[in-house]
Write a structure and sequence with these properties.
Two copies of one chain form a homodimer.
Chain A (H helix, E strand, L loop, with lengths): L5 H17 L6 H7 L4 H8 L2 H22 L9 H12 L2 H17 L4 H20 L7 H16 L3 H15 L3
Helix pairs in contact in A: 1-2, 1-4, 4-7, 5-8, 5-9, 6-7, 7-8, 8-9
The structure holds a DNA duplex (30 and 30 nucleotides).
DNA sequence: ACAAAAATGTAGCACATGCTACAATCCTGA
DNA sequence: TCAGGATTGTAGCATGTGCTACATTTTTGT
């Protein structure tokens, strides 16, 4: 929960990058240390334990996702649900966004069984997604529907059924109309 | 890819149960062996390697999910999209179903980075979900939408935002109407 | 300037992991 | 019956894990 000290902050960026590239499960101290240009010994010294360290990394990534969202479509006004969904889906195809969403999925599946920190971070990210969605909708009440559908699209894509995701998107266009 | 021998089949059920209860990531040879009443040595003997073993376990679980689906709502005719979604969502609240869906999420997040076997199983399960959905819909064309939404509901629930999932379900009822 | 504290390097421990070597037992068919 | 394969137990290896002990250097406050 405590905010990172300056020393910690400097280490967090390269480690977050490593996690985004290689996943959370496989993130062990030695590779993380190497990515940050230090040693496992130092990571424990600065962060006390691996759990605490991973907590910081997850929060850092969450923050990164949030600021990413904030600057995305920031200049556009509220739009119909389907327009927003389509635009976000386009963005989600960009490789940098995909790896972020992949971590988000991984985090969610960990949260189901994980410790309090993991659950809190997952919940936090979900909340930010929801707020951001509502802020861009002509009908903010639809935010839960749009978010739910987006999460579903991500799952199908990672399950290797991007085609079904696209069919779903197309079908939803007719259903939602101009809401 | 090869079907399990009788000897393998006997071991698979308790191991699948262990995985459903404890997750895929933490499934190492010794606990799996203990669950199946044998030794790690024997597991390797019967399955050659852990990767092959996990492949069998995943396929076993997939099969279990498929037959579970086949017998679920089997006596009911085709129904409107929202009715089906609501019914399935109710079923998903049952603890035995929830742990299955949890594994499904975990498998999906693994497939994103995983080997061919993992990806194939994930894709297979998604396909079966889709077919099953289409078979129960008055308008089978809506199957992708319904499935996508369901996956999204699962994600939100595991992320600790079941409330948002429920809001989403309620809102979708108005949108879908009687289709 | 200098003692205390912070920061770092080196080495290694204790444990869990997948997997193997080797020997012993069990079971089958001729 | 009994040779040969199938099956299993015991012990252990090599590697990766989180973390620590200890000594050393660097920084900081007075």
């Amino acid at each position: 929960m405590t905010a990172p000290t300056p020393t910690q902050a400097k280490l967090l960026m390269p480690m977050a990058d490593y996690v985004l590239e290689n996943g959370l499960q496989t993130a062990s101290l030695r590779p993380l240390a190497k990515a940050a240009g230090t040693s496992d010994r130092m990571l424990i010294y600065h962060f006390d334990s691996k759990d605490v360290l991973l907590g910081h990394i997850m929060r850092f990534i969450a923050e990164q996702m949030a600021t990413g969202l904030a600057t995305t479509l920031s200049s556009t006004g509220p739009m119909p649900a389907h327009t927003l969904l389509t635009r976000v889906w386009d963005l989600a195809q960009r490789s940098e966004m995909r790896r972020t969403l992949r971590i988000w999925l991984e985090l969610t599946s960990m949260a189901a069984r994980g410790d309090d920190t993991t659950q809190a971070v997952a919940q936090d990210i979900a909340d930010r997604f929801l707020d951001w969605t509502a802020a861009h909708l002509k009908t903010p009440t639809l935010a839960p529907v749009v978010l739910t559908h987006f999460e579903g699209l991500v799952v199908l894509q990672e399950a290797g059924r991007a085609d079904v995701a696209n069919q779903s998107l197309a079908a939803l266009k007719d259903i939602l109309g101009e809401r």
